[in-house]
Recover the amino acids of this structure.
């Protein structure tokens, strides 16, 4: 061990270069992992809150018409006895934390000559608070109340409509019979949300009002369920299907987990594995620098190795000396990288990286927070440290074996 | 005697020649005389069938030239009013405080979710002024002898359909069936008149069924419950204020 330690300081520059290479690689891994987890976690939770829940129940015929906001195929409870009764029954299940109905429909308003297209959500206000964190996004006013002709708009939408809190607004829409209609609502709240969809297109009205104007008594376009965690969705799905079957509604409705409802999220999960391979490759690349350093050391110390062998040092011991040398560089480099990377990640996890412009180009439909907050956690730091240390230790085996294999007589001749 | 028979044959031939020599424009003009309404008060029912769901709307319409006011009277739409003045359409919904003006491609949408577009209902000009006509065949339709007349839009005319093919009753000069095509040749709509009646000396369609070929599994029947030609229409009926 002492010998290995001393050897490391013989050529400090070389050792520092190797350690720096590993540090940078581990630092990049810590940051990249934090960033990827940050983006994915935020998107996952946005999709769960605003799109699919952990589990979504829709009418069988609605699946291909979701984008069109069709009102022809909707959820009206078990054998038409109302969506709210269905929600109550679902909430009786132990695995279901809560369930909410949403009635999504297309609408427009025409303040002057231009036409502004919007998306309306008929909601149960308390349910929406439970399901999303929309209450924290309120810039002015409050949420709509059931039974009232009230509306809440995004801050982007209200300014393009030239309206303000307290004004009345007439929205135009097609009811479930495709008839063009208009209704006036009072603006009681304005939300300022970072999602362009909510800020610029969406409005909330009470579910009962949406059902009334759209002629969809006791109906909703979807029922969203939150289980104890995202990972439980697959286990809870058959329970929900059983509840539907017990109530003679198994064939009418489609039960989708979040990953079935959003194939994009499935891809995200695959991306997580791909990124893990990239991290390993990145550290391997830094490992090449260590291999190179070690090969040079072996070359330089061929005579010394011969001497050690002649003095009776076994080749296994020589192997260990070189592995210790390499591992030391790996451990020190990984430690430094993990610490510096974590500090950097922690800083950005508080301040975030503003991606607003880039995301506006992508699409308003894609649910992603335009300010990305990389996730800082110790698990990530330790993972990256271990990954760096182990890969470097493994890469050291190649030059160390070479050293161990040297014949003492041949090595001594190499003067 | 032979001479008399010959004369009779000659008269018959001449008479027949005269009938078949009628031009498409003359047929359409005679049809317009039946179907074109200068002013009327109509009570009607519209049955909209959409994928098996059926909805009944009742309405009262007052029309004078290119102006019309429709008020819906069925419980679901009671109070909804449409006002048409020239090419403009305003709507009043009892649930909304503003009057809504429809324009542009919005007018091509189905009225109240029916297969009739707003534009179909707004057509108030005589067809003779908008299309070039040609008799393309003569055949029986539902046991009634008919002219099949093709109408191609006149250059510069603003119409909803580029080409229309109509089956017009040879004796009553009333359209019994009509197909409406886009310029591309695609069949857009088909109208079948299922019932006609002679009212105040003119044949008029009483039950018309429209099918929008661009929509799946839908049809709309428009049934006239009562019609009064040239009624007394109070002044100010067609003003925007009358909507609210």
């Amino acid at each position: 061990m002492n010998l290995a330690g001393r050897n490391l300081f013989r050529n400090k520059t070389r050792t520092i270069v190797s350690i720096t290479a590993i540090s940078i690689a581990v630092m990049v891994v810590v940051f990249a992992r934090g960033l990827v987890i940050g983006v994915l976690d935020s998107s996952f939770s946005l999709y769960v809150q605003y799109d699919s829940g952990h589990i979504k129940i829709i009418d069988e015929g609605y699946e291909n018409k979701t984008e069109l906001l069709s009102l022809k195929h909707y959820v009206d409870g078990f054998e038409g006895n109302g969506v709210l009764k269905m929600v109550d029954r679902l909430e009786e299940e132990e695995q279901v934390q809560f369930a909410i109905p949403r009635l999504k429909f297309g609408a427009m308003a025409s303040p002057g000559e231009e036409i502004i297209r919007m998306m309306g959500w008929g909601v149960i206000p308390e349910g929406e608070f439970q399901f999303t964190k929309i209450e924290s996004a309120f810039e002015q006013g409050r949420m709509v109340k059931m039974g009232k002709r009230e509306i809440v708009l995004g801050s982007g939408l209200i300014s393009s409509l030239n309206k303000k809190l307290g004004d009345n607004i007439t929205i135009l829409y097609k009811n479930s019979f495709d008839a063009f209609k208009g209704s006036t609502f009072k603006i009681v709240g304005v939300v300022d949300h970072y999602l362009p969809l909510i800020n610029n297109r969406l409005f909330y009205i009470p579910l009962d009002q949406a059902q009334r104007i759209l002629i969809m008594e006791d109906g909703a376009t979807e029922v969203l369920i939150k289980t104890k965690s995202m990972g439980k969705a697959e286990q809870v799905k058959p329970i929900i299907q059983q509840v539907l079957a017990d109530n003679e509604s198994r064939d009418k409705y489609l039960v989708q987990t979040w990953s079935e409802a959003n194939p994009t999220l499935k891809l995200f999960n695959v991306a997580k594995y791909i990124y893990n391979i990239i991290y390993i490759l990145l550290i391997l690349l830094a490992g090449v620098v260590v291999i190179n350093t070690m090969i040079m050391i072996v070359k330089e110390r061929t005579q010394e190795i011969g001497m050690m062998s002649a003095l009776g040092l076994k080749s296994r011991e020589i192997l260990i000396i070189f592995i210790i040398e390499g591992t030391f560089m790996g451990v020190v480099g990984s430690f430094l990288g993990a610490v510096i990377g974590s500090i950097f990640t922690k800083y950005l996890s508080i301040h975030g990286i503003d991606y607003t412009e880039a995301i506006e180009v992508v699409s308003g439909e894609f649910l992603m927070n335009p300010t990305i907050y990389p996730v800082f956690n110790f698990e990530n730091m330790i993972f990256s440290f271990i990954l760096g240390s182990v890969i470097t230790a493994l890469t050291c085996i190649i030059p160390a074996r070479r050293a161990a294999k040297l014949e003492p007589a041949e090595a001594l001749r190499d003067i | 005697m032979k001479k008399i028979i010959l004369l009779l044959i000659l008269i018959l031939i001449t008479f027949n020649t005269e009938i078949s020599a009628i031009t498409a424009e003359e047929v359409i003009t005679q049809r317009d005389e039946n179907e074109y309404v200068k002013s009327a008060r109509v009570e009607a029912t519209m049955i909209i069938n959409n994928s098996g769901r059926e909805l009944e709307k009742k309405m009262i319409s007052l029309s004078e030239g290119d102006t019309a006011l429709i008020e819906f009277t069925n419980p679901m739409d009671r109070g909804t009013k449409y006002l048409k003045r020239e090419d403009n359409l305003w709507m009043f919904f009892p649930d909304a405080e503003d009057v809504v003006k429809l324009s542009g491609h919005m007018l091509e949408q189905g009225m109240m979710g029916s297969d009739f577009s707003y534009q179909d209902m707004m057509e108030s000009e005589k067809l003779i002024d908008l299309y070039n006509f040609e008799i393309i065949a003569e055949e029986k339709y539902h046991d009634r002898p008919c002219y099949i007349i093709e109408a191609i839009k006149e250059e510069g005319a603003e119409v909803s359909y580029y080409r229309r093919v109509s089956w017009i009753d040879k004796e009553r000069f009333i359209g019994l069936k009509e197909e409406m095509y886009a310029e591309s040749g695609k069949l857009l709509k088909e109208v079948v008149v299922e019932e006609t009646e002679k009212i105040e000396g003119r044949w008029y369609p009483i039950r018309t069924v429209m099918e929008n070929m661009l929509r799946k599994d839908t049809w709309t029947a428009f049934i006239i419950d009562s019609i009064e030609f040239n009624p007394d229409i109070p002044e100010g009926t067609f003003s925007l204020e009358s909507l609210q």
In short: Chain B is about 15% helix and 45% strand. Chain B has one domain: 24-243.
